[in-house]
Amino acid sequence: xxxxxWLTDDAPASRFQASAGQAWAITRxxxxxxxxxxxxxIIGALVFVSIFAPWLAPYSPVGQNLGARLLPPSSEYWLxxxxxxxxxxxxxxxGARITLLxxxxxxxxxxxxxxxxxxxxGYFGGWVDRTLMALTDVFLSxxxxxxxxxxxxxxxxxxxxxxxxxxxxxxxAYARIARAETLTFRNAExxxxxxxxxxxxxxxIAVHVVPLCLSSTIIRVTLDMAGIILTAAGLGFLGLGxxxxxxxxxAMISRGRSFILDQWWVATMPGFAIIIVSLGFCFLGDGLxxxxxxxxxxxx
Amino acid sequence: MTTSxxxxxxxxxxxxxxxxxxxGRFVAVTALTFLGLLAITFFIGRVVPIDPVVAVVGDRAxxxxxxxxxxxLGLDRPLAVQFLIxxxxxxxxxxxxSLTTGRPVIEDLARFFPATVEMATAGILIGVLLxxxxxxxxxxxxxxxxxxxxxxxxxxxxxxPAFWMGLVGLAVFYAGLGWVAxxxxxxxxxxxxxxxxTGLLTVDAIIAGDWAILGNAISxxxxxxxxLGFFSxxxxxxxxxxxxxxxxxxxxVTTARVKGVSERAVIWKHAxxxxxxxxxxxxxxxxxxxxxxxxxxxxxxxxxxxxxYLTTALLRADMAxxxxxxxxxxxxxxxxxxxxxxxxxxxxxxxx
Lengths: 300, 352
Description:
The complex is a heterodimer of chains A (300) and B (352). Chain A is mainly alpha-helical. Chain A is built from eleven helices and no strands.
C-alpha cells in the first residue's frame, strides 16, 4: 500500500489515519485554489519577515541619519528614506512584527470570547440565550471604528489599548457564528449521550461544543483580519495606536502626510505593505472557506 | 397589502394582532439597542477613565470648577442612578460642553453634521450607480475576465486603507493632474457666500442659484466622495452579484429563456426585479458603514464634518465631544440598521 492509498482509504483503520486522510484532502483542495495559495504565501512571508527582521533589514528601523533625509528610492535605500533619514524598507520589515502582534492578540482575545458566549447561548437556550444575544446584537449594531476610537480615547493612546479596543468591538460576529453552529447540534444524540454519562455542562461545552464551532470561527477570523489591520492602521494614522519611534505602518503613513506632494514615497510605501497583507488574509480566508465550509460558497 | 374579501373577521383581527406585536417588538428592540449604545458611552465616559471629572473638564480646571462638575455629574451617587440621569440628559439633548470649542456639544454636532451627510450621500450615489450594474454584469458573465476583475476590485475595497487612498488621490488628481480642487469644502474666497439653508453646500448653492459656487463645491466634493464610493461599491457589487446568481439559477429564469425572451430582458426584468428589496437593505447598510468610514477620509481632506470634529476632540481628550459624536454616529447607524430590517420584513413576504 502506497502512502497515497493509505491517505485516501475509504475505511481508515485508526483515528490517526482518518485525520491524516482528512488533512490530506483539505490540503489538496486548498492547493487547487491559486488565490488561496497566494494568500497563504503572503501570510507565510509576513510571519517569516517578522521573525527574521533583524537579519533581513539593511538598516536599523529607528536609527536616524540626518544626512540622508527624504531620499527617493535607490539601490542604496530601496524604498527611500523618511524625514529623519531612516530607511523605509527596514522600517516596513520591522513594522510587520507590530502588525502580526496586533492581529494575533486581537484574534486571541476576541475569538475565544465570542466562541464561549455563542456556545453558552446556543447550548443553554432560553433566557441565557436571549440575554447574551441581545448583548451581542447591541454590539453588532454599533459602528466598530467609532467605538474603537471612543475606547482608545478613554483608555489612552498606545499599542496595548488599541488592541483592547479593537478586540472589544470584534467579538460579536464570532458569538453569532458559534451560536448558530451550536444550535444545529445541541439536540444531537451524541450530546445527550455525553450528558447521560455524567458529563457536566462545562465539560460538554468545552470538550464537545466548542471544537465543533472552531472551523467556522477560524474562517470568519481570517476574513476579518483585513478589517482589523485597517482599523489598527487607522488608529496608528490618528496617533492613537503604536507610538513613535515604533515603525507601525499607519503611523508611518501619517508622518509622510506632510511630504505627500514632493516626497510621495514616505506615505505611499507603507500603504502598499498594508494592502498586500490585507489582501493576503482575504485570499486565505476565501480559500479556507471554500475548503472547510463548502455550503457558504459564493457568499463573497 | 390588500385584504381579500374571503377573509373572515377573526382572521383579520389575528393579522392586526400580529402587526401590533411586530411593531411593538420593533420599537422595543430599537429602544434596547439605543440604550445599549448609551450604556457603552456611559461606561467609556465614567467608568474607564481613572478620574471622570478630569476627563470632562480637563486637567487645567480650577478646584471650584472641578468640585462643581463632580457635583453636576452626581459622582457621589450609585452608578445606576448616575446612568439614569445620563440617559435623561442625552434624551433632552444635553451632551455637555466641548472643551475645544467652548460651545454645547449638541450645537457643534448640528454645525458639523451636514458636511458629513453631504459627502456620504455623494459617496453612496457613486457606489450605487457603479456598484449595482457592475454586480449584475459580473453575475451575467460569471467566470469571465470581467467577473474576475470586479471580484479583485471588490477585495481591494476590503484591503486598502481609506486614508491612504485619500492621500494618494490628492497627490495624483489634485497636485499631479489638477483635475480636482484640494482639501476643504470650498475655496476660501467663496466661503460663507451662500446663505445656509440645508447646510449641504451643493444644495444651498443651487437654491441661491450661484453656479460658480456650485461648481467649486463639486470640484472639492468629487474626490473624497469617489473614494468613499469605492468602498461601498466593493460591497454593493459583491452582494448584487451574489443575489443575481441566485435568481439566474431559478427555474422561472430558465422558463423565460426557453420562451425566447431576450437576454437583456431576462437579466433586468426577470432576475433583477425580485432582488430590489434585498438591494435596498444592502444599500442602507453600506450607507451606515460609509458614514462611519467618512471619519478617516474627512481627516485627510480637512473636511469640516463630524469625523474631523471627533478626531480633533480625541487628540485634546475632550470626552464630552468625543462621546457626543459617538452617540450621533451610533444613533444614525442604529436607525439605518433598523429601518433596513423593517423594510425587508415589510416587502419580502418570505421573511415573515
